[in-house]
Amino acid sequence: MVTQTSIVAKLKESKARGTAFLLEHQRADGALGEPERAGLSPYYKALWAFAAAGEAEAGNRLASWIRAQVQTDEGDFAGPMRGTLQDNNYAYPAGWMVAGAFKMGRFDIATPGLRFLKTLQHPETGGFRMQRDKMDAFQDLLNAGQCGNALLFGGDIAAAQRVAGFLRMMYEAQPRPNEELFLVYKPGTGLRTEFAPERQRLHSIRIDTPRQPYFNPGMDAAFLCRLAQADGDGAHVELAKQYMEISFHCLDEMYETAQAGKVGWGSALIYGVSGDDRFRALAERTGEALMAQQTESGGWDNTGGYVNDAIRIEVTGEFVVILDEMIAGLSMR
Q1: From CA 33, how far away is CA 310, in angstroms rounded?
Q2: What is the pairing mode between strands 180-182 and 204-206?
Q3: Cα→Cα distances 100→113, 217, 229, 249, 254, Å
Q4: Which one of 110, 111, 255, 317 has the lowest number of neighbouring Cβ atoms within 10 Å?
Q5: pLDDT tens, residue by residue, 171-224
Q6: Which helix or strand (DSSP H or E) is residue 284 part of?
Q7: At what angle do helices 91-104 and 56-69 cross, to 10 degrees?
Q8: What is the distance between the alpha carbons of residues 242 and 220, in angstroms, rounded to a whole number?
Q9: Residue 204 dihedral angles phi and psi, to the nearest 5°
Q10: Helix (H, G, I), strand (E, B) or coil at 77
């Protein structure tokens, strides 16, 4: 019999408060927030969040709205309520919605959505291009990990394994991965290690610099652990650990940022599938940090910069998913 730990109990309570925040922001037509003005931001993560929370009514109302207002006959999520803010990060929100639709059992959305998503997977690298209509567009770790989850939930293990191949290629090309992890790949050129200083946070994670995109390796580690469960290949778990190693060396301010969320996701699942206590400790510390950032409303704000209701709903939807995945990982042992 598995005994529920105090951290798991607290994560469950925090998840419930986050779910209540999302429900408060759902409209009568099923949408969240103001997609007419904000586009994808307030709803594209909420489908998975409602599935994770067991909110079948809310999730199916949102799913039906997405099917009517966002998804095209080809399976693309390009309808009038998409907006343009994610056009240079095209595959990532599609990966969230396809995964959420599978979790919700909405195969009318998930099946054509996955069919479309696979058209964005590069035939040689296995990564996902970040622009829909540019065949040689950049690929990166974040799009790969979330699209990998969508492939897994859709049962396409072979395509998911190609994503793992992309992640291995990216890691093996890293010159010093425990000091700076480079995130972006250009077909025909390779790992992108040179860029303008002001664009650093779009291209790498540095351990000696604050406000980094700490979430990237956590996304990939979470996917790799789930893939290892699917195909039994322990090498995926070892790669997940390698990606997550940089998280042990980042500045402590990481735990004061919302960007730490996926660190908790990846580390909890590594612990769940491997029993490695280093990652349990990392997951628990991150979980405490995420709960400390939860506002009185039950939602979360992003860190720094401009924050509005759409961003709050987006971050809260993601954190409901992350807390659910952390509960799963920490409860496996």
Answers
A1: 6
A2: antiparallel
A3: 11, 21, 19, 32, 28
A4: 111
A5: 999 999 999 999 999 999 999 999 999 999 999 999 999 999 999 999 999 999
A6: helix 277-293
A7: 130
A8: 11
A9: -160, 170
A10: strand
Tokens, residue 206: 């540095």
Which of 171, 166, 157 is CA-nearest to residue 187? 166
What pTM was computed for the model?
A: 0.97
Q: Which of 267, 258, 236 is nearest to 330 (CA)?
A: 267
pLDDT digits (tens, 9 = 90+) for 78-133: 999 999 989 999 999 999 999 999 999 999 999 999 999 999 999 999 999 999 99
∠ at Cα 220 (139, 301), nearest 5°?
Answer: 95
Check if the beta carbon of residue 264 is closer than 8 Å to that of residue 286.
yes
Distance CA 65, CA 324 (A): 24
The Cα–Cα gap between 43 and 97 comes to 9
State the pairing for strand pair 190-191/180-182. Answer: unpaired
